[in-house]
Specification:
The chain is α+β, with helices and mostly antiparallel strands and 248 residues long. The chain folds into 2 domains: 1-35; 37-237, no CATH class. The chain is built from 6 helices and 9 strands; from the N terminus they run H-H-H-E-E-E-H-H-H-E-E-E-E-E-E. It has helices at 2-35, 48-57, 60-63, 132-141, 147-150, 166-170; strands spanning 69-73, 79-87, 91-96, 188-189, 196-197, 199-205, 209-213, 219-223, 233-237. The strands form 3 sheets. The chain has a 4-stranded antiparallel beta sheet, with helices on one face. A 3-stranded antiparallel beta sheet has the order 6-7-8, with no helix packed on it. A hairpin with a 3-residue loop joins strand 6 (199-205) and strand 7. The longest helix has 34 residues, at 2-35. The protein starts with a helix and ends in an 11-residue tail after the last strand.
Length: 248
């Protein structure tokens, strides 16, 4: 009797182990789907410099699929997972899977000149190109980035470091980065913190606000002078020379 009970228990254990393996596999698939539908999400082992070399010699597209990520050291702003989200003819765009550790405003509060016209660089006047946050990212924060990564990235037209647009996060399947298929995938947390944060998009709204992603992954808007999360992007040039820091 004892031997039969042992055999029955061993058979039950084997079934439970198989069930657990099946559930684990399903969980991993769901996690990958949350990060981006059908994305090949894995950590890139090559250095940033090796990735730049591969971008020059034409092997980048073959080696790094959309969804792969590599950690970039932003010093006191944290270790940020940068995910490959789009490749065009000339650019490989990376988007942070984590917000920077410290919140920051987009711009100063809206001001008007003596004629009542809004002053560029305040509120939403001047948009992303004139925003305080753009300058802050491309000076103070860029200087915190590890040299291996900094020497590998370029200015694709909106700053070496940038925040994404509404279309890139909420657009249709042709505009949106594939890492943002649903609201859960848009949730970001500041580096080292567990609570989800609200984070900036680069689209101005009216005279005094910019669009944002709320902590629940839905679209919203915030006054430009409010300090919220910052989720950065940067780009590797797939052809041509690598740009330096702004101002150099």
């Amino acid at each position: 009797m004892a031997d039969e009970r042992i055999e029955a228990m061993l058979a039950k254990q084997k079934r439970l182990e198989q069930d657990l393996a099946d559930l684990t596999s399903e969980l991993e698939e769901l996690k990958a789907e949350r990060e981006g539908t059908k994305l090949n999400v894995f950590a890139i082992k090559d250095t940033w410099n090796m990735m730049k070399i591969n971008a020059i010699d034409g092997t980048f597209r073959r080696k790094y699929p959309i969804g792969a990520y590599k950690v970039a050291n932003f010093g006191p702003e944290g270790l940020i997972r940068m995910q490959l989200v789009q490749m065009t003819d000339k650019w490989a765009h990376f988007m942070a899977m984590d917000a920077l550790k410290f919140p920051h405003r987009m711009n100063a509060v809206l001001e008007s000149d003596m004629d009542g016209n809004p002053v560029e660089g305040t509120g939403a006047c001047g948009g992303w190109l004139g925003a305080e946050l753009r300058e802050y990212l491309n000076t103070a924060v860029l200087h915190l980035l590890e040299s291996d990564a900094w020497n590998s990235i370029s200015d694709s037209g909106r700053g070496v470091l940038w925040v994404p647009s509404e279309d890139e996060v909420f657009g249709d399947e042709y505009e949106r980065f594939p890492c943002f298929p649903d609201k859960e995938s848009r949730i970001r947390r500041m580096s080292g913190r567990e609570k989800p944060c609200t984070w900036w998009l680069n689209n101005g709204m009216g005279q005094n606000s910019f669009e944002c992603v709320c902590s629940d992954g839905m679209k919203g808007a915030m006054s430009s002078y409010q300090s919220i999360g910052v989720t950065v992007g940067f780009s590797i040039r797939l052809s041509g020379r690598t740009a330096r820091k702004e101002g150099e």
